[in-house]
Amino acid sequence: MYIPEAWHVIAIRRELRRAHREPVALRRFGLDLVLWRDAEGKLRAVLDRCPHRSASLSAGAVKDGQIECPFHGFRWDGEGNCVKVPCNGPEAQRPRHLANTAFELREAHDMVWMWWGQPRAAGDYPELPWSGPFAAVDEGYVHDTLVETTQVGWMRNVENQLDWAHLPFAHHNTIGTGFPPDIEVRAELDGDLLSCWPAHYEDDEGVPHTPLHYMFPNTWIMAVGGPNNYSVIAFAPVDETHTRMYLRTYVKRGRVPGLAALIARVFRPANRVIFKQDQRIIETQPPGGTVGARDEKLVQADLPIALFRKEVRRRMEAHAKPEESGSSSSSSSEGSGDSQTVQLRVPEPNERAS
Ligand code: FES
Ligand SMILES: [Fe+2]
């Protein structure tokens, strides 16, 4: 499974509601993770496997802001350091070989983001990929989120949301009603932002009224009928063939208190109907990555999808080069050996930036 080295949305905050008092298990990137809040309230994540004898730490407890294994009571802090081994006695040294792999997290936009890639020094992480069109919903909006899981990988889900031509077929009785089947699609890539729209959305100056935007690696936004409502999607990779989907509606606050929240909430069942229309079809596609799907014959309306695949391939190749030069020798937890697999190392515990 190829996962771009970047910040990824992995959850929304309501899924971590219990994390200050108990561990929360989460499977992402093909790994079992355990998340909890430390004594300062900061969200932490390590592998959900005890370095001692492999029990699940998520079956344990949060004690003094540390995660405690249920089997023999060993404890780890948020950096993955083993800080307590009860059977060795209170005077024993911190056992470095019992360190766990910790992951860098951020909380923003009511979402939880995880850095997937090589660890960096504290100040060297890039900004979260939430800018440009996403800034539109930062002020004055309320939101409601539908959470679903699809049995296809993240690339199939992204491509489905870059696809204008499926509207009058997959959604013929919902959002595709009246959408013309014969369309010309425009697309452009600007850094991490891929934008696309049908040509008939353009005004006389060639400016489209509601383009959709996909931001590498895993967020998507589109205005719905004007600037008062936006649809935002985050595609969290669970593993090669599963994706956690966060389908969020943003509604601009108006004069009537609570009305925007009510409208956002009302969108949820409608979004579920639309999501199910997509799900029943995309789950018939081969579920893994699509970069190697060279037997699929794309047409003009697939221009955004072609651009997406080309850019993913470019990033994979750029990422693979250091590996080929032999600069990295550590083991990997990822990869199924197919032609589009790029292995990304899970960093060893003592490599983590302090
Ligand atoms: S298996 Fe976790 S402390 Fe022994
Ligand atoms: Fe759709």
Automatic annotation (TrEMBL):
<dbReference type="InterPro" id="IPR050584">
    <property type="entry name" value="Cholesterol_7-desaturase"/>
</dbReference>
<feature type="domain" description="Rieske">
    <location>
        <begin position="7"/>
        <end position="114"/>
    </location>
</feature>
<protein>
    <submittedName>
        <fullName>Oxidase-related protein</fullName>
    </submittedName>
</protein>
<keyword id="KW-0560">Oxidoreductase</keyword>
<keyword id="KW-0411">Iron-sulfur</keyword>
<feature type="compositionally biased region" description="Low complexity">
    <location>
        <begin position="325"/>
        <end position="337"/>
    </location>
</feature>
<dbReference type="GO" id="GO:0016491">
    <property type="term" value="F:oxidoreductase activity"/>
</dbReference>
<dbReference type="InterPro" id="IPR036922">
    <property type="entry name" value="Rieske_2Fe-2S_sf"/>
</dbReference>
<keyword id="KW-0001">2Fe-2S</keyword>
<feature type="compositionally biased region" description="Basic and acidic residues">
    <location>
        <begin position="314"/>
        <end position="324"/>
    </location>
</feature>
<dbReference type="Pfam" id="PF00355">
    <property type="entry name" value="Rieske"/>
</dbReference>
<dbReference type="InterPro" id="IPR044043">
    <property type="entry name" value="VanA_C_cat"/>
</dbReference>
<dbReference type="GO" id="GO:0051537">
    <property type="term" value="F:2 iron, 2 sulfur cluster binding"/>
</dbReference>
<keyword id="KW-0408">Iron</keyword>
<dbReference type="InterPro" id="IPR017941">
    <property type="entry name" value="Rieske_2Fe-2S"/>
</dbReference>
<keyword id="KW-0479">Metal-binding</keyword>
<dbReference type="Pfam" id="PF19112">
    <property type="entry name" value="VanA_C"/>
</dbReference>
<feature type="region of interest" description="Disordered">
    <location>
        <begin position="314"/>
        <end position="354"/>
    </location>
</feature>
<dbReference type="GO" id="GO:0046872">
    <property type="term" value="F:metal ion binding"/>
</dbReference>
